[in-house]
């Protein structure tokens, strides 16, 4: 296409005076169309080179975040279920004590002591897992922010009030990247 554009433009420049005006207009429009197609393809390549890495990084981050979010949801549901079961045990013992049946309440407490202790242990373990997952998600979000900044080739230097964005975004490529 590039060769045809150049040959046509050269021929048209040489034969401009002897070519009919309709053919001039047609050939100029065709050369301009090929130039626009060429410009679009160059722009598409530039966008793909710039956005491609960032898109891959963003996609990987989104997949990790979705996996962590589902694990957090499962852990939160487990903790809520254990809390509900512990509440049921406590309510049953409380109701027996309210009715004035102290012996029944004491025997129920004794019977449910092991079950309740195991439920409390399991709940604490699951709550620890939930907290660890939330911390991992926060850490991953911080790493993701750094990865996006690295993929763009810019780093953020805090300027201050009144600093323009051009002063805050500095090219991230320097002597440290030449090693």
- Distinct helical segment count: 4
Within the largest sheet, what's the order of strands? 1-2
Q: In one word, what is the shape?
A: rod-shaped
Rg from Cα: 35 Å
The largest sheet is: 2 strands, antiparallel
Specify the helix fraction band: over 70%
Order of SSEs, N→C?
Answer: HHHEHE
Secondary-structure-based class equals mainly alpha
Report the sheet-strand fraction. Answer: under 5%
**Tally of extended strands?**
2
Number of domains in the coordinates? 1
Mean pLDDT: 78
Unreliable residue runs: 169-179
Rounded to the nearest angstrom, the distance between the terminal CA atoms is 41 Å
Give the arrangement of secondary structure elements.
Blueprint: H1 2-14, H2 21-98, H3 102-152, E1 154-156, H4 165-168, E2 169-171
Antiparallel strand pairs: 1-2
Task: Describe the protein in words.
This protein is mainly alpha-helical and 179 residues long. The protein has one domain. The protein is built from four helices and two strands; from the N terminus they run H-H-H-E-H-E. Strands 1-2 form a two-stranded antiparallel ribbon. Helix 2 packs antiparallel against helix 3. The chain starts with a helix and ends in an 8-residue tail after the last strand. The C terminus is likely disordered.
């Amino acid at each position: 296409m590039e060769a045809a554009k150049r040959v046509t433009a050269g021929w048209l420049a040489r034969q401009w005076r002897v070519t009919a005006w309709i053919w001039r207009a047609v050939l100029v429009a065709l050369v301009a169309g090929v130039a626009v197609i060429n410009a679009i393809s160059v722009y598409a390549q530039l966008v793909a080179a710039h956005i491609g890495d960032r898109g891959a990084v963003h996609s990987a981050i989104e997949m990790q975040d979705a996996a962590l979010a589902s694990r957090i949801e499962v852990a939160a549901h487990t903790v809520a279920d254990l809390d509900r079961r512990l509440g049921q045990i406590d309510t049953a013992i409380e109701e027996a004590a309210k009715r004035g049946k102290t012996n029944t309440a004491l025997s129920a407490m004794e019977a449910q002591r092991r079950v309740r202790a195991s439920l409390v242990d399991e709940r604490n373990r699951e709550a620890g897992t939930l907290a660890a997952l939330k911390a991992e998600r926060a850490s991953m979000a911080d790493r993701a922010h750094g990865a996006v900044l690295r993929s763009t080739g810019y780093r953020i230097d805090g300027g201050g009030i009144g600093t323009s964005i051009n002063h805050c975004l500095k090219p991230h490529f320097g002597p440290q990247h030449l090693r």
